[in-house]
Structure formats: structure tokens, C-alpha cells
């Protein structure tokens, strides 16, 4: 069977062996309910609290400020809804951006239906948010700013420290979705200056279905699920002990290797871009190569559909993602690329290649050859995107 090349690490990552081994051990030997007072329960509780302390330390946070969730989407939702529900009686305005993950965008649309005003700050042509634009959107009614640390589609890194400083001057809370930047950039809640921060395990070699939300001590915050008093009454439901243990293991590895791995994958990304541009001179970069995640490359191929390219590469053994769903049944291209005000040609023909801890130079060079062959074949066939 042909060995496949996986270049979709921004979607999810392979489970690290150390994580799998840790989860298997917990699954086999720790079955107690962590809310139970007997020995089996206390053993499970100890694993959770050890993991909470380790993850908190990695983020520069206090253990009691960490809430375990069912994933990144829940963490994002909980941040917005938890703050607005508890604090929104008098202050009914939230500031976000036009390039946020759907977990943020759709949570904001929900609170709009609850008579909360939301301002979506626009980005520039590289998907960068200007801290001054955020500051100008703040009013006396603003309760929360929610801006992602790095964009999941094009990789652009946002000036979170500057944004948080401007909000802090006016006593406004700041939430940061760091789900895509965790393990690729340093993520420290104190340095960033944020009050809430979302992370997820499966982006760093951990299991799916487990995430966490940092909530700075003292912030008025309301739970969005009701039942028991788990997670200090901020997120009801029996905790997923094996997944939490796996999350902590993945976090430890990600933090330890972050600097070296970022340098390694940046070299591979640079190599990938250089050779793609050489083989296909019409290739267009989407985003900002000098201010992006070290592993993320989003490019467009003029007149071709990103979905068509993605499927062609899949057949040739390469897994990538597309910033556009226009070739696979959706009516509109990526909201991020649209927010960047790219023309329809570039939006439709975009492909995201995201590298990770298993990616090798040999795979990168082989991918260039496969992409070049597929794109040239599609140009020759005359197949274009959305009738362009």
C-alpha cells in the first residue's frame, strides 16, 4: 500500500505514542468516578488535579483557573456565553473579528439573537487584525473582546498583547482562542494579558474530545451546563479522566519541543513554498509568510477549485485542506478569505498545507512534485473553479 503524506495538522494531529500509552494505562487501571470519596474515586481525582496543575503551569496560570471541557469548540462557547450571561445585564456589547473560527462566530451570532450587540472588526489583506481598530470599537457598553491568537486557515498571528492592553485600559475582559497556536507558538496567559483562553488537545498530538478554558480568578462567570459541581461548578458532568491524562502528556511534550519543532517545521514550510513557487510560478500566497504559524501555508492556484485540488491530491496520497468549499457543495468560499477581500478566483482556488511533528523533508519535496503534477494536469484539462 502506498505510504500517504499527511499535511493537515491544523485540522487534527496523529495521537502521540506517549499519549496513547498514558491513556491506555489510565483506562486499564483507573475506573473510579473522580467525584466519589472512596479510594478509587480519589485516585481518579488525583490524576485530574495533577493534569490540571501541569497544564496550568505550562500556560503560566493557576490550577484552579483551568476548566476542562469537551473540546475547543465548547471552550470557545463557554468563554463567550459564560461571560455574557453573568455580566451582560448592563453591558451588552462584544467585540470579535471577521476571521474567527466558527465556534466563536456562531456563538457571537447566538448572543446577537439575545439582544447583545457584536462588532466584528475587519482584517487586512493578510488576515491581520489591527489593535487600533479593536480599540476604536470599544465602548462603555463593551464587556468582552474575543480575538484568536493565530488564524487556523492562513496562519496569521494576531497582536494579542497589544489588543489586551488596550482593552485592559477600559476594564474590558479579553478572551483568546489559542487552539491553533498552542504547541506552535509560546502561549502564556500572563504575557498575553488575557482573561480567558481556549485550548484543545487534539491539535498537539492529544486525544479528541478534550479541551480546556482558562478563566482568570475573580472574573464573574456563569456555567452553561447544569448538573453536579464538577470543575468548581463551572462545567457539570463526570470528567473524562483518560483524555485529561492524555491531554497533560501531550501538553508536556508540546511545550518541551515547541521551540525546536517550530524552527524545524518553519524550515520545511519555507522549502515547500520555495519549490511550489518554482514549479508553479502562478501560485499565490494567502496570508503573511513573515507573521504566521511556522507550520501553515495557504496558497491559491488561479482559476482552479481548491476542493478539486484537494481531492486530486487525496487520490495521489496527500492529505491537505482547502480554504474553500465552493467545489464540494457549499455556496460560498471560506469566510476568512472573503474577509481578507481576496478576489473570487483566489478564494475558490485556495489550499491549506499544514505541517506537523511527523512531516519530513522527503515528504515535502514529494508533495511539491505531486501538487505540480496535479495542478498542471487540471490546467491542461481546462477545468476551472465556479465557472471562472
Can you describe this structure?
This protein is an alpha/beta fold. It folds into two domains: 5-12 and 259-381, Alpha-Beta Complex (Aspartate Aminotransferase, domain 1), CATH 3.90.1150; 17-253, Aspartate Aminotransferase, domain 2. It contains 13 helices and twelve strands. It has helices at residues 17-29, 39-59, 72-87, 102-113, 131-137, 160-168, 189-192, 230-233, 241-279, 306-315, 335-339, 344-348, 361-381; strands at 5-6, 66-69, 93-97, 117-121, 142-146, 173-177, 196-200, 211-215, 284-286, 296-300, 318-319, 350-354. A seven-stranded mixed β-sheet has the order 2-8-7-6-5-3-4, with helices on both faces. Strand 6 (173-177), helix 7 (189-192) and strand 7 form a beta-alpha-beta unit. Helix 2 packs parallel to helix 9, helix 3 packs parallel to helix 4 and helix 9 packs across helix 13 (361-381). It is globular, with a radius of gyration of 21 Å. The two termini are 37 Å apart. Mean pLDDT is 94; it is low at 324-328.
